[in-house]
């Protein structure tokens, strides 16, 4: 009979290796964006589609919280909703993302309507919400651990946007500035929780597979953007067309 002794150090290294190999900072679209190679319309397409992901994060977290029986876990996790929704009007990550939308010339009402979102973006993000709502608690929490790898991409994005794009300033990129302090708090709790609860090989495999799933959700969104808006552009029916949803 095979025995298994949990090893937190090697398991954490396994999770980090997933990010090293699969995180979407390696996607060609991000290389294009951060180097200043995106056209204004390609930036707008990214803002529109990424908004759909941002707007569903608090919905995902609320669905998760609805089945959490541990008050300590609820107290920690609900901060994620406040980070995105804010604690009053005019605050929170979603509001800051819509300021970015205005900065690139988009009407925030159009962006928040999600009318122009790519079909693949919608499918990927909705699959992530269902995953966190329906899967066991351990993989649901583990899927959030892409935040382990987020600070680097935020730093690269801040530097790249400020260097290459006229719209970038302290107001329009404030979403990313805030995530530099918010994401580490989220992931510190989530990582410790996963390490504490992944006590069998099956647990560790489930957590690792959940993290892989989340990297695929993020990667699929960028694949959709690249296919639709980077040469040769192939914009699917119903998705945002350049010239739509602009500020008047």
TrEMBL record:
Family statement: Belongs to the PqqC family.
InterPro entries xrefs: Haem_Oase-like_multi-hlx, PqqC, PqqC-like, Thiaminase-2/PQQC
Transmembrane segments: none
One BP annotation, GO: pyrroloquinoline quinone biosynthetic process
UniProt KW Glycosyltransferase keyword: no
Pathway listed: Cofactor biosynthesis; pyrroloquinoline quinone biosynthesis
UniProt entry tagged with the keyword Iron: no
Domain (Thiaminase-2/PQQC): residue spans on this chain: 13-223
Catalytic EC class: oxidoreductase
Role description: Ring cyclization and eight-electron oxidation of 3a-(2-amino-2-carboxyethyl)-4,5-dioxo-4,5,6,7,8,9-hexahydroquinoline-7,9-dicarboxylic-acid to PQQ.
The name this protein goes by in its record: Pyrroloquinoline-quinone synthase
């Amino acid at each position: 009979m095979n025995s298994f002794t949990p090893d937190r150090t090697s398991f954490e290294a396994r999770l980090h290796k997933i990010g090293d190999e699969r995180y979407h900072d390696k996607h060609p679209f991000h290389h294009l964006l951060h180097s200043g190679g995106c056209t204004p319309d390609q930036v707008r397409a990214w803002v529109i589609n990424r908004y759909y992901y941002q707007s569903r994060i608090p919905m995902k977290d609320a669905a998760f919280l609805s089945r959490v029986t541990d008050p300590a876990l609820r107290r920690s996790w609900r901060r994620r909703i406040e980070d995105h929704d804010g604690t009053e009007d005019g605050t929170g990550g979603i509001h800051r993302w819509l300021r970015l939308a205005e900065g690139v010339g988009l009407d925030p009402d159009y962006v928040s309507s999600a009318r122009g979102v790519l079909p693949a973006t919608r499918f990927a993000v909705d699959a992530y919400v269902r995953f966190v709502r329906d899967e066991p608690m351990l993989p649901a929490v583990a899927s959030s651990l892409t935040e382990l790898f987020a600070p680097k991409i935020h730093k690269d994005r801040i530097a790249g946007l400020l260097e290459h794009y006229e719209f970038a300033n302290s107001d329009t990129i404030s979403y990313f500035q805030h995530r530099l302090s918010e994401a580490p708090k989220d992931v510190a709790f989530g990582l410790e929780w996963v390490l504490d609860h992944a006590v069998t090989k099956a647990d560790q495999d489930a957590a690792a597979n959940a993290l892989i799933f989340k990297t695929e959700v993020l990667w699929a969104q960028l694949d959709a953007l690249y296919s639709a808006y980077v040469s040769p552009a192939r914009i699917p029916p119903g998705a945002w067309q350049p010239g739509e949803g602009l500020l008047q």
